[in-house]
Backbone:
């Protein structure tokens, strides 16, 4: 357990379904991130949230809709996905930057999504 | 954010040191070098990071050249459980004053063999 919890671990959904992925961290971190990892590809950054505000959308299609109600929770709402959206979706969080230290990311275990 | 170059794959004998190189010739002065690893189908795991000094923790050592254009991650006694994809990333991390993002490349697939 890394301190970042993602649910569900596995999800199979049809192209007309609506589902949501959940990410939760109790590390006191201020920033949260969604990444997508397709088979045999590097991680792709999707969204960045800083103090609940979205600061980056990396040209993600609107069928992916993030929500960050507070600094500890992050959701990814899914609607009318395509089979090529099947991937491992990873959530991460990070702490602030100070003058004498810099902090990396803590990742969750991911949600393995299959769109049929 | 600066880009990194890593060999796509490496082998290492169990019990020996694994030395994973990374080139980051365009690194800027305020960017850190981070190393993560990803064991099959799990989330990436933080290993170590540094700015300009060499760093060591319970998992690994990080050697950064004086000009900061390259670095080496050293796993002193590799075990079979160290088989994973290792990512070298440069960036400013994230947080309250800077949502610097970490961009992952292809990484190096390290295969530790008995």
Residues:
């Amino acid at each position: 357990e890394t301190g970042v919890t993602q649910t569900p671990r596995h999800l199979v959904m049809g192209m007309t379904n609506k589902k949501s992925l959940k990410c939760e961290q109790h590390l006191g971190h201020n920033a949260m991130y969604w990444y997508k990892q397709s088979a045999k590809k590097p991680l792709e950054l999707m969204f960045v949230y800083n103090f609940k505000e979205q600061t980056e959308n990396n040209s993600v299609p609107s069928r992916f809709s993030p929500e960050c109600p507070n600094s500890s929770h992050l959701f990814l709402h899914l609607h009318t996905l395509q089979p090529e959206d099947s991937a491992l979706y990873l959530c991460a969080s990070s702490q602030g930057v100070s003058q004498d230290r810099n902090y990396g990311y803590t990742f969750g275990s991911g949600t393995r999504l299959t769109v049929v | 954010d600066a880009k990194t170059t890593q060999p796509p794959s490496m082998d290492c004998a169990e019990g020996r040191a694994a030395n994973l190189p990374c080139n980051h010739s365009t690194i800027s002065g305020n960017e850190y070098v981070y190393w993560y690893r990803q064991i099959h189908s799990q989330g990436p795991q933080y290993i170590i990071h540094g700015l300009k000094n060499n760093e060591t923790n319970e998992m690994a050592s990080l050697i950064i050249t004086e000009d900061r254009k390259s670095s080496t991650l050293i796993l002193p006694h590799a075990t079979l459980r160290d088989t994973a994809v290792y990512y070298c990333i440069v960036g400013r991390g994230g947080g309250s004053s800077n949502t610097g993002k970490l961009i992952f490349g292809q990484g190096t697939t390290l295969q530790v063999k008995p």
About this structure: Confidence is low (pLDDT under 50) at residues 97-102 of chain A. The CA atoms of residues 14 and 33 of chain A lie 25 Å apart.
